[in-house]
Every structure is written in C-alpha cells, then in structure tokens.
Batch of 3 targets.
Target 1
Amino acid sequence: MTAGNVYTVAGSPGGQSGASSSGTAAASTMLNDPEGVAVSGSGLFIAEHRQLPVVEIAATTGTQYGISMTAGDMYVISGRTGQCAVGFDAKVATQSDLDQPIGLHIGAAGHAGDLYIADHRQQPDSRRSPVPTRPSGPSP
C-alpha cells in the first residue's frame, strides 16, 4: 500500500451488499451497511448495521474467542447474522442479541483491549457490551 492512497480492505470493491460466512477472505467479504469501525492489534472490527453482527478481520493467525482465525479473513465475533433481538446481557458474544449495531470503541486503561458495542435498537442507547479482544484473554 502507498501512503495517501485509498484501498478496499473489506467488502466488495464493486459495491455489492450481502452477508458472508465466517472464514471468508476480507477482500471477498460481502458487507451490508457497515456503520462503525474500530482497530486494535488483534484486528479490524466492523459493526454491520443491516446484517446485525459485529465482525473482525483478523490481523494474525491464531485462536480468539475459541474461534480458529486466519489473518486477513472475516469472522463474526458478536451477534448473529440476520437475527435481531433485544437483550444481549450475560450471553456468549457469538450468541448475543444485537439489533442494528452502529458504533464500536476499544477500551483503554483498566479496560484496554475490550470492545464496546453501541446498538441503535437496544434501549437505553447508552447500553454497551464489553467483548475482550485480546487473543490471550478469556472467551466472551
């Protein structure tokens, strides 16, 4: 990559929308209305507003959240594709209920490495779901 140039790192360069399965190469991933993005040492995180999950493009090959990941591939790490619901508290992240995730934030200080998800349809809007994103951390 050349500094100052724009590159597609995830999603269809042709602009097609849709859903992709976990393990799809990032360059071949279909996205549908990505709303929020966060970056950490473990990967690029994307909130999929229309398809409903939060996905990660893994930065390194290894196991995170009990999922064997390959660098450069996309994996669902929170929510379920195409299944919206309210009430994501105290559930395993990959089975959590999301309904239009719109924003992501990587925590700092005592919460460094945690991923916080803002979900448009969860009430109240200030509700957040921390998801440990450190590869060596516990599975959410």
Note: The two ends are 34 Å apart (CA to CA).
Target 2
Amino acid sequence: MKTPPLIAIIGAAILAMASAASATVIFSDDFTGVTNPNSAGWYFYNTSTAGIAWDIATSNTPPLSGNAMRNPTSSGSNTVAIKQFATQSLSRIGDQIEIRLDFRSVGGAQGQLQVSLLGSANTVSANQFGGTNPISDADGYGFYHLFKTTANSPSYLQVTDSSTTSVLFSPTQTQIIGDNLGHTLTFRLTLTAAGLELSSSIDNTAFTSYLDASAPVYTAFDTVRIAAPGPASSAYVYFDNIMVKAVPEPSALMLLAAGLAVGCLVRRRFNRATGASPAAFPPAPASSAAASKPFPFTQKPPEAFTLVEILTCIAILAILAVLVFPVVGKVTNKATLTKCLGNHRQITRAYLAWLGDHNGKLWYRAPGGNWGGGSGPLFGAQNYPAAPGYLCQLLEPYGLTMAKWSGWKAIPNADKTVWYCPASYRQTAIAGHGATYYYRFLGNEIGATSSVTLAAVSDHLSKTPYLRDYYGNHEDSSQLYFSTKHNVYSYLDGHSEYK
C-alpha cells in the first residue's frame, strides 16, 4: 500500500517534533515511591545548624497527587531545596529553559515562594546545615510570590551569589497562593536578540514578561533552588510534579522534521521504483554483467516524483527559509550588541580608573564643539587634530587604543578599537570616524560650568548615561544614526545596558 505523500510528510514532522520534545525533559519528579528527597537528587541547606531537611508526605489536592516533597516548617522553614542537573546553555536565539511545578500551602504558610534557575560551578551532594552556602557562587533568575490569602503580584528576580536578589520587575497581574489550594507555576527563560526574556504563569494567570538586557545576561543553568518559608507550627508547603525542560529554538525542530519528511519521500520513491523494501532484495549476483546493470532487480523503471511531492518539498524549504533567515539575522545582531556592550564596559572601567587618579573630578567639556550637536550635552570621543583632548586621548594611558580621524577617508582596522560600534562597521557614511560613541558631562545635570566630582552628581550615576552610541544603530541596521528608543548606554555606577 502506498502512503500518500502529504500524510507521510505530516507524520514524519509530528514524529520529529514529538521525539525532540520528549528529549528536552531534563528531569521530572513526581516522588512516586520516594521516601527521602535525597534519593531523588534533592539536597537541603539552612544557615542554622538546627535546620532540618524537607521530607516526603502525601497530598491529594489537585493537581498534586500521592507523594510530594514537603517543607516541614518550624526549624525547616528557612531551609532551601537544591537540585542540580547537566548544564543547559541558551546559545541560540529562541532557546528556552523552564521549570514547572505544582505546589500547595497548608495551615497559613507565610513568607514567600522563591523558585530560581541558577548556574553554579559547585557540586551539591549532601545536606548542609550551618556553614557556607554550598552554591554561594550561583547566578541566575528567580520567581517570587508571597503566600497570602489576598491577591498580590509576583516579582522577577536577578540572583547573584545564590542569596543576593534584586527585583527586576513586578507584573501588574495578581494571584492568591496562600489559600490551601493546589496551584501550578511555570517559570520560563528565553534567549532573544536583545537579552533574556523572563515569563511566568500560575494556573490560568499569565504574568507580564520582562526582558533583561543588562550585562551580564546569565545563559547557563544547572541548578534549581526552591525556598518556601512557613513559620507557623502547623503550616506546610507541598511540591509535586517538578519538571525542568530545555526547548531548542523552533527552526531546529523544523529542520529535523523536514529531514525526516524528505527521507520519508525518498524511501517511498525507492520502494515504488523497486516494488519491494530494501530488506527484501536478494544479494547481488557475482556476474559482472548483471552487476553492471543500474537496476538489476527492479520490477519496473523508476518513476519520477509527482507534482504534489515536488511542491510539498518546495513548501518545506520555503517555510525553513522564513524561519532560519531571521534567526541568522538575530544571531548577527546579538553578536554586534554583545561586542558593543563589551566596548562600553571597557571604556567605563578605564574612565572610572582615570577618575580615581584625579580625585573623582569628571572630565569637563563645555556644550557644543565639533561633535557636540549644537548646544547639546553630548560630545564625541574622537581626537580631532583641531580639538585635542577628546575622551579617547584621555584614556589611552589606561590601555585603550586611541580613536583616529582621517578627514573622511577610510580608517584601516577602525573597528578593532573599543571606540567603534560594530553595528556601524558597514556604514560608508561615517568613513574617517575612529569613534562612534558620544560622551555626556554629568555636571550639566546640576548646571555646572566647570568640572565637578562624582559626589556632586551622585543622584545621576545610575540613572543618567555618560556614554552612548551615536553612529551605531542596534534597533534598525538600515538606519545610520542612533535610535532614541533602543540603544546602548553606560553609567558611572559601572553598568552598561541596552534599552
């Protein structure tokens, strides 16, 4: 019986996607048959030597069922649960990692639910109570929500050194999780061209996502950390059906599906041409005359592909082109953005070192000038022969190669210096510019007309940029100049960001 080509292709695609999806599950714990969480790879840490490990108990409130891991409160209330797995790196645009778990608070559990995906170089293989945090080096992202009987909003966290957290964003949507009912949390991290997107949901409530475009963006994960304090003596928090999975970017699945689909067509054509499966063929004859025939055992000449089959293959290739080409572009944009952020960080480190050597007094440039944009507060970083003293010359003794000016002629290897945004490299309109970044004198924010110290502009160090792209455009590479909506900025508190 001949398989219709479309059914063959669709079946192969579904098979490919299903097999790929099942292969992405990193671990899934429903605690069936488990009597001690340690046997399932969960270990526990408490800063107190009196801390105790979580245990296994029964909870049949849907979606929980049967055995579940439980925070036993009291001296275990501040104990955190840790499970490690093989490192998962988000390396391609669209790659994801997510944790999904069911939980239930009982008896007025207080405090907060914290679920984090982290990366740590340390290995945890035993419980620890007191002493140094076994994953003290862990960095990553977390989801935070209060156990209350009234609706409240969650928060996304950036986690550094395992226990240091900073709130990145709090969605406006609310949910109740301290109501003795079972709930399902999904927390997902997705790599995008602009940074890492954090998204989450509890039950049917999807919370607004957040894009972390700061530097560094964490992309390698090997540890789950769960904290759920419940100080009341009869309060417990149960966890069940904990699953972590990594999802490759969609074009990878489509490539696999397309490969199997085309293979299915080829196999079907081969069978049609021979009239039998390859396994049914007898061994080749010893006769050289018989062996010289191209199809010695075929029952009929090979047939051509049908029009439907050819059109289907063309459609598959077209779909793949639509999926893959934008991804390639996004990867390129991500690479240039990463390089630009690196340039900004190097310049900022050098400028902060210069400030340290000059009693914290900001380098002063009056408004206007060759690159000043009229009366604006932004200034170029170049070394014009007619206007020496630009920022790049100032910082050359601190290990930065000075930018050049060649009178609108091309500058060899201009992009090799930190003063040149890689998003500008192919723009012939800026030939001769050795630098594409602008400097801002923060003293303008307080009306200063001469150099001032960092202390005088302390309110602006983290919120007013002192350096930005001008000829680099990460938002739209077809446009020469900067975008006021999305660009790379640096601040004198030491951080750089794309926003």
Note: Confidence is low (pLDDT under 50) at residues 17-22, 277-281, 367-388.
Target 3
Amino acid sequence: MGIDTAGSTTETVLGVYTGDRLDGLTEVTSDGADHGTAAVRFKAREGVSYAIAVDGWYETSGNLRLALSFDRPPGNDSFASSQELGAGSTASAAGDTSFATHEEGEPIVGFNPWGAASVWYSWTAPSTGTATVDTANSSFDTVLGAFAGDRIGGLTLLASNDDATDDAPGGDVLTSRLKFRAEAGRTYRIAVDGRSPKGVGGLELHLALVPGPANDPFASPRDLGRSTLANAQDDSTLATREPGEPKPGWSFGDASLWYTWTAPFSGGVTVDTAGSSFNTVMAVYTGERLDGLARLAYNDDATEDTSSSRVRFRVEAGTTYRFVVDGRRAPHGGPRQARALARAATLQRSIRLPAAARSTGQRVAARHERRRER
C-alpha cells in the first residue's frame, strides 16, 4: 500500500495508524523528514481499517493532495521469501521496489533508518573468497546490506553501503556497492532498500565472487617470521572485514589484512606502512583468538604530512604479535565507505635492538634506512 502527498502546495507530514480511539492509536508508519511532500509504504492487511493523518510541517498550511495506491508487493518483499540467486560465482537480478515494504523486526541497513521499501535475496557461496555486490544501473538512491543468519531476528551484518563512490563525473553515484568474505557452502542474505521513503523504482543487482587475499581473515595471517627486519607487500583491494573483528582505533575501513611476527629479542620495535598507496591505519595486538585480543599500539598517520602509519612498542622475546592494516575512511560517503581502490599495503618494520645486540642491529637498521632514502 502506498500513500503520498505529491502535488500538495505545502510541506507535509503523514502518518498511518490502527485503532478506534484517538488515545489508543498504534502507528504503522510515518514520514515527513524531508521538509517536502510525504510518502509512506506499508503492507496492508485485508479487513483492517487504517487511520491516515496529514499535517503541515510546523505551522505551514496550503492545498493538500492525498493519493492512495495499492498493488501487490514484489515476491521478495519479505525476508522469508528471499529471491534465490543460486550458488554460482556470478549472479544478477532485476525488479521493481515500488510496492515493497518493511516488516517487523527488519534490521536497519547501514546508517539509514529512513528506508521503507526493502527487498531480499539469498545466495550460497560455491567457494571461499570475496563477494562483491552492487546495484549499478538502478533508477533510485539505494542502500545495500549483506547478512549472515537464518532468522530476521538473528541476522549478523557483514557489510553495508549507501553510495558506491562520490567522485564520479557530475557528482555522486547513488547506487551502492559492498564486499564481504564468503565461506564455501554458506548462505548469505542481501537486502536492498531506498535511501528515503520515496526511494523506490527499478532495481538491478549484480554479484561476483573472486579469490581474496590469503591473509584477509584473522585465522590465516601472513607470517613474517622471527627476523630483526621484515617487510611485506600486499594488495588489499579485495580484502574485507570479518564479524567481530576489532576496529583499529577510529577506522571505518572495510579492507583489513593480518600479519604475525615473533620477537627474536626483547626491546623496542617500530612498524610502519610507508610506501602504501592509500591512507592506512594500523594496530598491534597479542592474543590467539579474534574475540580475545589485547591492543598494544595504534596509529593513523605517522606525521601530519603523511597518510601512512607508524607504531612503536616494546616486545618480549618469543612472543608472537599480530598486526592489522586497514584503510582510514569516514563512516559516510562513497570512497570513504565502500570504494574499491587499487591498494598496495606495504608493511615494513625496523627494530631497535637491546644493548646486547645493538652493534649488529645498528648496521642492519642503517642499511635499511639507506634503502628507504633511495
């Protein structure tokens, strides 16, 4: 069921209720946040009477136009009737969300509490890798979410996105794009909604599964050994963030890579991402489980003039340390939320040795500094 005030000459707010007494009404849905005309969509039940209230925004008044439209919602309007995308490495679907609704208990997709017309899809991963999903070529401003779980009340959000990028020619790209790590044989749920209650229209959904970086998950970090000088170079374009993964400081990135290094001595250590092609954040932990890590150090920018990261901390001989590198992005917007750039994450460490090994360590560090200066 759709109700709108399009064509009215005043700013309106709109509410739909059930109930027989003014002091006993239950709100079904409402709209009026855009300081313009209002529109709501909801799943009407046969035989139920609904009360519709229209008012002006604050003290505005004028001519009112109220329109009601009724049509059946799309077949994948509810979570329980998610459209199957199969179990292939690629999938696509097209539809129209004009009469889609929200259902009770439905999770908010990303940072968007204003959507009112979601549709659902399910997909089973044929192999382990990075799944990318987008709504390119859709006719409205979309938001997109990927979830794990079999019940609408027990879903785990894996990734979400509003705008795929905000640096396209002519302005923002209002369709969405996200990525998440998929495990072979596991079924995932994908929700598409509008950015506002008026956000409905023709929808296109595209999915592709590709191999991700080997050290994307916490469980399979790149081992940097026990040497006094170690470096690694990786591309994090297809890296993801896994559920329960700690955020390095104030990072809102979604493309982390993991490394381990075992200290061959006790003393001070410096780790940096100098030479990386994107704005990094980095954190250092001890611990064997993702939900039991203790953070030792964190850094966003090594200096005010650089976007690479550098941490310094003390190590104990024989202890294994875990390093995570991610991108530094703000919580909203295109490239700051889900833009996929070619990212080459270079992780380098130079080590300040304790006194007993200082002479050898100084020669190693000096050679390392000369290489970096070149």
Note: The longest helix spans residues 358-373.
